[in-house]
Design goal:
alpha+beta, Alpha-Beta Plaits, binds (R)-mevalonate, about 425 residues, four-stranded antiparallel sheet
Length: about 425
């Protein structure tokens, strides 16, 4: 029986590892060697990473790939992409090249408003709460003056506070719905600090507001930003003449019709929409990770947006009108190019330099394009050759690496599998036959 550990967070890194090894890993020296292999020999850099989170014992690498030739609003970008899945970067690069020759991507930020709520209990008369709120609203705003100073100087800050009656959804449930402009910051810390201060002021003022009886004072349940940001929205699009879509497998017209049908299937069927949107997130998450943004926040917000009309549906839209094929995406993205990891993580700094130091709006546009490109590549494969052909080619390398093949063995295998079906067992058999 394993006993619970006490004071774990106070232990040194070595003590933590010793405890893990002796408790779960039979003091396996190989496990220790693996952890150590991933430590950075630059102790300052290692310390930086140790300090990002708690109880750090080693680093966990993901590959950073790049996808060149993205023409976005007439500017050429090479996208940094952090992802473990093979084919994603190749697919992005192919889509970028395809659209480079057809005018590139157009992207536009529709809005940048973020929001957060102070969730309240109030079981008294609504008119009383409304009256109180209107009376204290200037004090609520004044209470965050110090927190807002810098943000306001740069042109951002709190936009408004609105009292919302949500008691039809849940008895006694009201909200102070607060909206913010956070400019180039994702703004989570700023918004949460503002909300907690407003909530404190609201409760303090409520205690001295005479019209509330002792039993009907509003009470703060919790205050937090929302990761649902439908007012922080970006749109990206590609379009061309249908005749420009000719491929070796299809003429443009057939391809466009199949493509539009595939998107419409994702619009109609949530089971397909989830996978369709997952493909979009392959591109989006990869750029979000490379630029040190919060992919969990983006994932949650994007999927909620996909279900905003009551049914989960496709985030992309495709149409053919007057012989013009148009393919677009509209998604909420709360991203930052300052604050958080952006100035701390050397690889994130590299990614921003590679992207020519975008501001948050430009990063929203670039990221939306990554999602659109990824979806284009996936659907193009799905309605033509299927995805396995390209996928397995990339997968072959992973299998060969797993089997610790030499570069000579790799070359032979790549040659052989050009015209043989790739599966884990077929590669294993081939490698074994080479070695025998
Ligand atoms: C795989 O990671 C993504 C796809 O399944 C997306 C899709 O089906 O559209 C290929």
């Amino acid at each position: 029986m394993i006993a619970p550990v006490t004071g774990f967070s106070k232990k040194t890194k070595k003590e933590k590892i010793d405890w893990l090894l002796s408790t779960y890993l039979q003091n396996d020296t190989e496990a220790l060697a693996t952890l150590k292999k991933y430590w950075n020999s630059d102790t300052a850099l290692q310390q930086l990473h140790d300090d990002f989170i708690e109880n750090t014992i080693s680093n966990y690498y993901l590959p950073l790939g790049v996808a060149p030739n993205f023409k976005i609003n007439d500017r050429l970008y090479t996208l940094p992409m952090v992802i473990e899945e093979s084919s994603v970067v190749a697919a992005a690069s192919n889509a970028a090249k395809f659209w480079l020759e057809r005018g590139g991507f157009k992207a536009k930020v529709i809005g940048t408003e973020k929001n957060g709520q102070i969730h309240l209990n109030f079981f008294g008369k609504e008119t009383l709460l409304k009256h109180f709120f209107e009376a204290v609203k200037p004090k609520l705003i004044a209470s965050i003056e110090a927190i807002q100073t810098n943000m306001k100087r740069r042109g951002g800050g709190l936009l408004d506070i609105v009292l919302k009656n949500s008691s039809e959804k849940l008895s006694g449930y009201y909200q102070l719905h607060c909206t913010f402009e956070t400019l180039d910051a994702m703004g989570a810390n700023f918004i949460n600090s503002c909300l907690e201060e407003i909530a404190r002021t609201f409760e303090t003022e409520a205690t001295t507001f005479k019209s509330f009886s002792e039993t009907e004072k509003p009470e703060v349940v919790l205050s937090i930003l929302s990761n649902y940001v439908p007012e922080c929205l970006v749109r990206a699009e590609v379009s061309c003449q249908v005749s420009q879509l000719d491929t070796k497998d299809f003429d443009g017209k057939t391809f466009a019709a199949k493509f539009v049908r595939a998107v419409n299937i994702a619009k109609a069927e949530p089971r397909r929409a989830v996978t369709h949107n997952k493909g979009i997130m392959n591109g989006i998450d990869a750029v979000i990770l490379a630029t040190g943004n919060d992919f969990r926040a983006v994932e949650a917000g994007v999927h909620a947006y996909a279900a905003k009309d009551g049914t989960y549906t496709s985030l992309t839209h495709a149409s053919v009108k007057d012989d013009v094929f148009t393919f677009s995406i509209e998604i909420p993205l709360a991203l930052g190019t300052v604050g958080g990891l952006t100035s701390l993580h050397p690889m994130v700094k590299f990614a921003f330099n590679l992207l020519q130091s975008p501001n948050a709006k430009q990063l929203m546009e670039i990221t939306a394009v990554a999602g659109l490109a990824q979806n284009f590549a996936a659907i193009r494969s799905l309605v033509t050759t299927g995805i396995q052909k390209g996928h397995m080619k990339m997968h072959l390398m992973n299998i060969l690496n797993q089997l610790q093949t030499t570069s000579e063995e790799k070359q032979k295998a790549v040659q052989y599998f050009k015209d043989h079906p790739i599966s884990h067992s077929s590669v294993l058999t081939f490698v074994e036959s080479m070695r025998n």
